[in-house]
Amino acid sequence: MTDHRAERPVVRTHAEAVAVAQDPDTYSSRVSRFLQVPNGMDGAEHAAMRRLLAPFLSPARMAALRPALERTAAGLLDPLADGTALDAVGDLGSHYAVRAQSAWLGWSPGLEDELIAWMAANHEATRSGELARTREVAERFDRIIAAIIAARREPGAAHDLTWELVHTRDEDGRTLPDPVLVSILRNWTGGDLGSLALCAGVVVGWLVADGSRQDEWRGLDDASLDAAIDEVLRIDDPFTSNRRVTTREVRVAGRDVPAGTQLVIDWTRANRDPAVFGDPDRYDPAGNADRNLVYGTGPHACPGRSLATLELRVLTRALLSRFRLESGGRGVRALFPLGGWESLPVVLRAPRPAAHPPRAAR
Ligand code: HEM
After folding, report:
1. Residues ≥6 apart with Cβ < 8 Å to 149
2. Per residue in 289-306, pLDDT tens?
3. 81 C-alpha to center of ligand 1: Å?
4. Can you list the domains of the chain with their CATH numbers?
5. Atom number of ligand 1 nearest to Cα 189
6. Which residues pair with 332 in a beta bridge?
7. Strand 10-11 vs strand 262-266: parallel, antiparallel, or unpaired?
8. What is the pTM of this model?
């Protein structure tokens, strides 16, 4: 496969990734000729859009969503018996990602098959690096979203989160035009369904590699489990990179480049920079938390972090409370520009009976 980034400077060290991501005046996010809200915006316009969209991912909204996510995870896992073999990414992560995101957005469960098929096509198009394929897949997704938006404008439509977005008014009191709504919903789902499925694979991969980790994680409170998951994603970050474009002549990634140069922030490498983490595989959730770049840094840092964190915690707890996870064989690594596992066979086992059952149970 061709590395389409080969000619572009690639920022690989932690220090430079932070410097670039935190300097939007020199490194603009306007990298695409397509509308990308808020990803492709800069400055005041970007900040205003982030403010407008923040309430959709607020702590209160996340707290209210949690029971629905727990039901989502239960719906997937409760039918599975001792000995079930499955692919942690394709069978578990993808379906959970779609159902969880739909629960947040208020989308019909009937869309699941269409969204799963779309994720697979998107995955293939991303890997191929072919512009025509990528565009075709993007247009397919836009058609799905256009229908979802149209339904929210029908009289009597349920007031779900997508309805609220469609009827949101900006600081000038105007509703958002359709292309903006489509772009927002694309960014909230398109890429992130895939990211979440890959994150689920990385977490399960970590747990099956050493069964004692499962016992340890079962005993963690929410904050510690979130930190543990973040650390595992730092070690094997599946959200590999983002682009920027220079607004002036600058020295970056060891090169002097003119204004208008596209460059890549390689989050995966920055998250494993030995100058910062020593041995990048050393698991230290508390020690590495404030240097973790899985969700980026600076004004474009992931606004979906609270949602992704909740979704992953709920899935991990649901798995560990029902099963012991065993490896089901060799996994297949995802190919650049994706990271983590493309597929990871895992076997679900009934939990071992406690070595010392509580007195009442003897
Ligand atoms: C599943 C794990 C996820 C990972 C690892 C992840 C990672 C990231 C990273 C590294 C960035 C920074 C981009 C940059 O600096 O250019 C980002 C931005 C973004 N993420 Fe996430 N993300 C995840 C999930 C989500 C979810 C669930 C949502 C939606 C609800 C979301 C929505 C976004 C948006 C809209 C941006 C662009 C923000 C901006 O440009 O201001 N992400 N994400």
Report:
1. 162, 166, 178, 181, 182, 185
2. 999 999 999 999 999 999
3. 34
4. 17-236+304-345 (1.10.630.10)
5. 29
6. 343
7. parallel
8. 0.93
